[in-house]
Design goal:
Oligomer: single chain
Largest sheet: 7 strands, mixed
Shape: globular
Order of helices and strands: EEEHEEEEEEEHHEHEHEHEEHEEEHEHHE
Distance between the termini: 23 Å
Helix content: 25-40%
CATH architecture of the largest domain: Alpha-Beta Complex
CATH class of the largest domain: Alpha Beta
CATH topology of the largest domain: Quinone Oxidoreductase, Chain A, domain 1
Radius of gyration: 22 Å
């Protein structure tokens, strides 16, 4: 395959104006010539993750959204409530490209990257909702022969986060996990990892059909928030597994508190004496998502040996170092069609991503619904 830089391509941008208006549009950008250790990827698949929506839509009120522009160059505008403008001050009046990860075919390469020419690669690093993406060789993961861009599009955020949860469990001395919104693509990956490695995992879901989905792939401990016996069921599952570490995709509300309370009640089952300070068993909840953007509410009924904090993938990968991070990346590549397979509700083009009804659909962030952008569709 010859080096063929297209010169220009469309890219999806998000702009929050100082006037308090969000504007989403397709922008024609230059595609630079690749440097010695760079490649140009023709992007053919890029998932819409919750983390992408944080940049794409931010705190805008979609009930105020309006569609404009032309069919091939749509524009969506919406109002950002004034009380949220301070939180986005650092990005005001900057047109920002969106899309954390994706996959495609290398169509141009620098002289140190010729071995990637014609290869299907996944890449992480932003600006992936675009027809073409300039990337460093180090940002690329070569996908196994026969793996399509759609199959490899979600090779980073969800797989590496799921692996990071198990790594964190071991690094911090826990023996089992609790995970919320557990029927998600990431949750299904985490189940497969835990089953393969003999790690007990307590899955918290929000509907009975989600519980059945997880049991169908072998999950043993599944508790349903919609059940009237949820609190008791959670204590039983935590007691049986000994889980003292949780990863929470919800963020807001009382769930983190309920998890810590269940861990404390499970720990106290074997207590030989009462302590007004609670058990000595340390309990940790990491919030890694914001499906509920409201405040995190803690009813402190779980003693004093506990912690609640945030968890992000990039700092974790930096913490474990490049050698271990590369081992995890390679595992993802090796198991991209099995353990780390992703399933999508729909494949849409860049212009379709700015269809108002479609945008509202993927912004629901519903468990089990995941959209894939294919920029080659226009």
């Amino acid at each position: 395959m010859t080096n063929a830089n297209p010169g220009k391509g469309l890219q999806l941008h998000s702009l929050i104006k100082s006037s308090g208006e969000l504007a989403l549009s397709l922008v024609e950008v230059d595609v630079p010539q690749p440097g010695p250790d760079e490649v140009v990827i023709r992007v053919e698949a890029s998932p819409i993750n919750p983390s992408d929506l944080g940049l794409l839509i931010g705190p805008a009120d979609l009930s105020t959204a309006q569609a404009g522009g032309a069919a091939e160059r749509p524009v969506i505008t919406a109002q950002v409530p004034e009380r949220f403008m301070r939180a986005v001050a650092a990005r005001v009046d900057q047109s920002m490209p969106v899309g954390n990860e994706g996959a495609g075919v290398v169509i141009a390469a620098g002289h140190q990257a010729q071995h990637l020419l014609g290869k299907t690669v996944a890449a992480l690093g932003g600006s992936m909702y675009a027809q073409y993406r300039l990337a460093k060789v180090a940002e690329c993961l070569v996908l196994p022969e026969g793996v399509t861009p759609a199959q490899g599009a979600s090779a980073f955020v969800n797989p590496l986060t799921a692996l990071a949860m198990v790594e964190t469990m071991r690094m911090e001395g826990h023996k089992a996990l609790v995970h919320t919104a557990a029927a998600s693509n990431l949750g299904q990956m985490l189940n497969k990892i835990c089953l393969a490695e003999g790690v007990d995992l307590v899955n918290i879901v929000r509907r009975p059909e989600q519980a059945e989905l997880l049991r169908g792939i072998g999950a043993k401990y599944v508790v349903d928030q919609s059940s009237p016996t949820f609190a008791a069921d959670l204590v039983e599952a935590v007691a049986e597994t000994g889980a003292t570490l949780a990863f929470d995709a919800i963020g807001g509300g009382k769930l983190a508190s309920q998890i810590l309370t269940a861990m404390e009640q499970a720990a106290n089952r074997n207590a030989s004496a009462y302590s007004r300070y609670g058990s000595n068993t340390y309990k940790q909840v990491y919030i890694y998502g914001g499906l509920d953007t409201g405040p995190t509410e803690l009813a402190r009924s779980f003693g004093f040996a506990w912690g609640v904090g945030g968890f992000l993938l990039t700092p974790f990968l930096a913490k474990i170092g490049p050698e271990r991070a590369q081992q995890l990346r390679q595992r993802v590549a090796d198991e991209i069609t099995t353990t780390f397979a992703s399933h999508y509700t729909a494949e849409i083009g860049l212009a379709e991503a700015l269809n108002l009804d479609t945008l509202r659909a993927y912004n629901r962030k519903a468990t089990g619904e995941k959209y894939l952008i294919n920029p080659t569709k226009g």
